[in-house]
Specification:
Mean pLDDT: 85
Shape: elongated
Helix content: 55-70%
Oligomer: single chain
Largest sheet: 4 strands, parallel
Radius of gyration: 25 Å
Distance between the termini: 71 Å
Low-confidence stretches: 4-12, 20-24
Structural class: alpha/beta
Strand content: 5-15%
Number of domains: 2
């Protein structure tokens, strides 16, 4: 079965996450026996007592023998107590003091949940832990600089192990922040970067055209509004009519001059 795992989940550039859906021990078994198969592991109420707790013992032996392991591990357990809680909390205690460098992990006792309800909250909390540093710091937009935004996603790329480009919407937002402060030259530069990065988007041309229009560069604004309109028609963009109205407006300004 192991040979099928990557093919089933590694179709796009996203972290490969092993999640226990059977609530036995599959995620932790994969972590211990083949840690590079997945980038992150969500273990929901795993039963580590099987075979006299062999998996729990093996996990400590294997993980304790690693100097470094750049993975994410989220473990949770419902209000079950007894051997299940003892085994999992024992593993968590081991990781606290003897876990490998680079391992990002968390253990949650889900009070109020039973074995049937625990997957819902655990999945949410596990994904939040894995993506905890994804959010762009507010300081990036408080003092809007493209370099800071690029550095943030560069750090994410290093952390998750694949290239994560700055999203079109983020660059666009940064441009509008600059435009709101009156820095039209800075906004135009940001929007031009978005056009270079996402030439298939109609919206990037529309945003650039808006900044050019505000800067009274009407001919260039009309050119980019027209590109937005044409691209919008090609991709059936729901804002195509808006792009056309913008184009007509700036054409009227040019004719009025």
């Amino acid at each position: 079965m192991r040979s099928d795992w990557p093919a089933a989940v590694d179709q796009t550039n996203v972290p490969r996450i092993a999640q226990e859906v059977t609530f036995l021990w599959i995620a932790l078994h994969a972590l211990v026996t083949s840690p590079d198969t997945f980038d992150a592991y969500i273990a929901i109420s795993p039963s580590l007592g099987w075979d006299d707790g062999e998996l729990a013992k093996r996990a400590q032996t294997t993980l304790g023998g690693m100097d470094e392991l750049d993975k994410f591990v989220f473990m949770s357990i419902a209000d079950e107590g007894g051997e299940m809680l003892a085994n999992l909390s024992g593993l968590a205690e081991f990781l606290r003091y003897k876990g490998p460098e680079g391992l990002v992990w968390e253990f949650r006792l889900m009070e109020g949940d039973d074995h049937g309800s625990v997957p819902v909250r655990s999945t949410d909390l596990g994904l939040r832990m894995i993506y905890s540093r994804w959010r762009v710091p507010r300081s990036v937009f408080a003092e809007p600089k493209l370099a800071a935004l690029q550095q943030h996603f560069s750090r994410l790329s290093d952390e998750y192990g694949f290239h994560i480009p700055v999203p079109e919407t983020m660059i666009n937002q940064l441009g509008y922040v600059l435009m709101g402060t009156g820095d039209l030259a800075g906004a135009i530069e940001i929007f031009e970067t978005n056009v270079e990065n996402f030439p298939g988007s109609a919206n990037v041309f529309d945003s650039l055209a808006e900044a050019l229009e505000r800067n009274e560069q009407y001919a260039m604004a009309a050119e980019n509004y027209n590109r937005a309109y044409e691209r919008g028609q090609e991709v059936d963009d729901p804002n195509t009519k808006i792009y056309k109205r913008n184009l007509d407006r700036v054409k009227a300004k040019i004719e009025g001059d």
